[in-house]
Amino acid sequence: MSQRLSSRDIALRKGGSPIVCTTAYTAPMAGFMDPHVDLMLVGDSMGMVIYGMSTTLGVTLEMAIAHGQAVMRGSSKACVVIDLPFGSYQASKVDAFKAAARVMSEVGCGAVKLEGGQEMAETIEYLTQRGVPVMAHVGLKPQSVNTVGGFRVQGRTADEARAILADAKAVASAGAFSIVVEGTVESLARDITRAVPVPTIGIGASSACDGQVIVTEDILGLYSAFTPKFVKRYAELGLAVSDAVAAYAADVRARRFPGPENVYGPGPKTPAKKKSRGKKR
Ligand code: KIV
After folding, report:
1. Residues 58-90: pLDDT tens digits?
2. What is the mean pLDDT of the chain?
3. Contact 23 CB / ligand 1 (< 6 Å)
4. Residue 267 phi, psi (nearest 5)
5. What is the pLDDT of residue 281?
6. Residue 273: its pLDDT value, please?
7. Which tens digit of pLDDT belongs to each residue from 247-280?
8. Is 128 buried (19+), middle (13-18) or exposed (0-12) by CB count in 10 A?
9. Could you tell me if the CB of 215 is within 6 A of ligand 1?
10. How far is the CA of 249 from the centre of ligand 1 (A)?
11. Which atom of ligand 1 is nearest to the CA of 180?
12. Mind listing the domains of the chain with CATH numbers?
């Protein structure tokens, strides 16, 4: 039987010990993180931190599926959630189901995530009633970057805060098993967390949430195009890569690498075969 956490296990953690979530896009990184986290999100942030895009909008369903499969192969314990890419679910609830069904069957993950509040509630209900666990995503929604005027903190005005709280309530009533709350002021994150019966997973939304998600490349120092205030650096792997490759390059240029310990010897001697004088076989 699978030892993986399910979306239901995550939902039951409401108000309990904080839920730990990272993004993951590859099998080796998933393997390193799996023992330490509850959830791994194959986020469309991959477009920016892996593929060098300036927004998340260029990520396709095929990319999400391929990276999702890699993360599943590299992990055995965490609940894996796949972000539905921009354009794969907004047009209709039927489109959303087709995209989600492909993801669930081809990846074998625990759930999908989609961005949106009240406007996506009907879609979330449609998916959850048809066997697709959904993580919702309110507040700052990177797929809407072009309509909200960039990546900016949400909920600073009373009207904006009211609308986002209503979004969270709507997606929870529609059946979402958890809600990502991104880029909101602390008071709003606290109000949302109190108001909904499912766990809130914050990113740039304070410790008032039931759990936290972070883009792994941000905390490891592997992405420096843009570092938001809410990111804490736990390692400088980008610098470590640069130093290591510089040392390798210097060794190659000075013919120090490969050294004798990296070279295959002749191997055990075998008696020389007599040359056959007969016909070739
Ligand atoms: O794509 C992503 O990584 C996300 C997280 C930032 C929540 O949606």
Report:
1. 999 999 999 999 999 999 999 999 999 999 999
2. 94
3. yes
4. 85, 175
5. 47
6. 64
7. 999 999 999 999 999 999 887 776 666 655 555 4
8. middle
9. yes
10. 35
11. 7
12. 7-236 (3.20.20.60)
Q: Whose CA is nearest to atom 4 of ligand 1?
A: 43
Which residues are identified as catalytic? 182
Residue by residue, DSSP assigns 19-56 as EEEEE--SHHHHHHHGGG-SEEEE-TTHHHHTT--SSS
- C-beta 83 within 6 A of ligand 1: yes
Determine whether 150 is exposed, middle or buried from the number of CB atoms within 10 Å of its CB (0-12, 13-18, 19+): exposed
Q: Best of 20, 182, 227 to mutate for ligand 1, by most ligand atoms within 8 A of CB? A: 182
Retrieve residue 89's tokens.
Answer: 């679910």
Q: Is 251 helix (H, G, I), strand (E, B) or coil?
A: helix
Question: Among all chains, which residue has been given the structure tokens 């066997």?
Answer: 131
At residue 270, the pLDDT reads 67
